[in-house]
Amino acid sequence: MKKHDYDKILFRLTSIWQRLREGEILSVKDLAIEYNVSTKTIQRDFNERLASKLPIEKSGHKWKVKEGHSIDKTLSFEEDLVLDILKELSLSMGSTFSTSTNKLFSKIQNRHETPIFSKIEIEDISNKTNIIKNIQESIKNKTQVEFQYKDKYRFIEPYKITTFDGYWYLYGNDILSNKLKTFYIKDIDSLNTTNKIFKENPKAIEKLRLAINVWFEPNKDFFEVKLLAKKEVSKYFERRPLNSSQLITKKYNDSSIELSLNITSENEILFELKKWQPYLLVIQPKSLAKKILSTSREFFDNQLELMI
């Protein structure tokens, strides 16, 4: 779930929560129209997210606060929901993280069960806890780090610890080559912190912010890509943009849409095109269209050979 979708859900749930708190009796049908979602989505909001946290009950197709109860909590509903999601997310980050975070979240929330289930798989990096802790401190203090990475000793200005597709990376500037790079955290060894100060690099952070996956190339300039999302998949790109630069430039009567976005690497968008074949197509640049066509042909030949 990306921030764009997450913000919409939080806005809807906190708005409903506030109206219940003020004593309104809410119609599922009316809420679905108001928030431009299905009645099933609203029912799921009440059944799976709201009813487990709030003293509310269903009466016909409407929901209200139970007689003799009121909604008044130390934590706001939004804060409580965020904690639930973070608690569930921690389960996929390894036993060390999970044990520590669950104790913390349970202490904050004063309960142990959560109705939230998050199917987000993140690799276990519990054995790198000390390295991550030192990197975090260096990022905060804007000081360089040094470490062994594969066959080389690296001198790095650390900018961010980030995840791509569930794998953890350090993103920063390689001082010797003066290039922005990502380093797979599990391959980092013998890390040492230093007192050498570095300056912030806003452009580097912007490259990371717009990255779709680890195949982005932060040392290259952005270029525009134009895509056609066929009707079969268009709704997914409307719900969750590939990155924050994505614009819907045209809508067709059959619900297909044209998209425009800025990226740094053809390999970065090729990864996404393969996931959405055959319904996501390239309009521009032509070089990218040729690459995905060549890849598709290779896949077809290999698959055909395997089936014969």
Describe the protein's architecture and organization.
- The protein is an alpha+beta fold and 308 residues long.
- The chain has 3 domains: 3-109, Arc Repressor Mutant, subunit A; 126-201, SH3 type barrels (Roll); 223-307, Alpha-Beta Plaits, CATH 3.30.70.
- The protein is 41% helix and 25% strand.
- It has 10 helices and 12 strands.
- It has helices at 3-21, 28-35, 39-50, 77-90, 95-109, 129-141, 202-209, 234-239, 266-275, 286-307; strands at residues 26-27, 56-59, 62-65, 143-149, 152-164, 167-174, 179-184, 188-197, 223-229, 247-251, 257-263, 280-284.
- The strands form 3 sheets. A 5-stranded antiparallel sheet has the order 7-6-5-4-8. It has a 4-stranded antiparallel sheet with strand order 10-11-9-12. The protein has a 3-stranded antiparallel sheet with strand order 1-3-2.
- Strand 4 (143-149) and strand 5 (152-164) form a beta hairpin.
- Helix 2 crosses helix 3 (39-50).
- The longest helix has 22 residues, at 286-307.
- The radius of gyration is 24 Å and the shape is globular.
| Biggest sheet details | 5 strands, antiparallel
> What is the ordering of alpha helices and beta strands?
HEHHEEHHHEEEEEHEHEEHEH
> Based on CA inertia axes, which overall geometry fits?
globular
Number of strands: 12
Rg over C-alpha atoms, rounded to the nearest angstrom: 24 Å
Q: Counting H and I runs of at least 4 residues, what is the number of helices?
A: 10
User: What is the subunit arrangement here?
Assistant: single chain
